[in-house]
Amino acid sequence: MSAPSDEVLGVLREIIEKVENPKTAIDFATHAMEIMTTTLNEDVYEVMRKMELNGFSDLPVMENSRMMGVLGQGTVFTYSGKKWADVS
After folding, report:
1. Beta 66-72 vs 38-39: how paired, if at all?
2. For burial by CB atoms within 10 Å, which of 19, 51, 55, 63 has the most?
């Protein structure tokens, strides 16, 4: 039986590295200084425009430095679609 090739050894080393040092949530998270937020009274369609321009699909809704909820584009689109369907 021959020894594994350098390519196979390289793949095995990568696997071992990922098992021994797994990625954590912070490796994929948006850092605090980059988070865009909205307020309770901000116009939802203006917020959606800003989200689209900045590549966000969800935003924390804040009041007095406290997170009150999360506004998601999907929720707004679903609600708007139902309202337009009710009008037609």
Report:
1. unpaired
2. 51
Nearest to 72 by CA among 55, 83, 58: 58
Distance of alpha carbon 54 from alpha carbon 52, whole angstroms: 5
pTM of the entire structure? 0.59
Q: How far is it, in rounded angstroms, from Cα 16 to Cα 71?
A: 39
Q: How many helices (H) and strands (E) does the chain have?
A: 4, 3
CB 51 within 8 A of CB 36: yes
pLDDT in tens, 7-34: 999 999 999 999 999 999 999 888 888 8
Nearest by Cα to 58 from 35, 81, 83, 88:
35
CB-facing half-sphere around the CA of 75: CA atoms within 13 A: 9
Tokens of 30: 């948006």
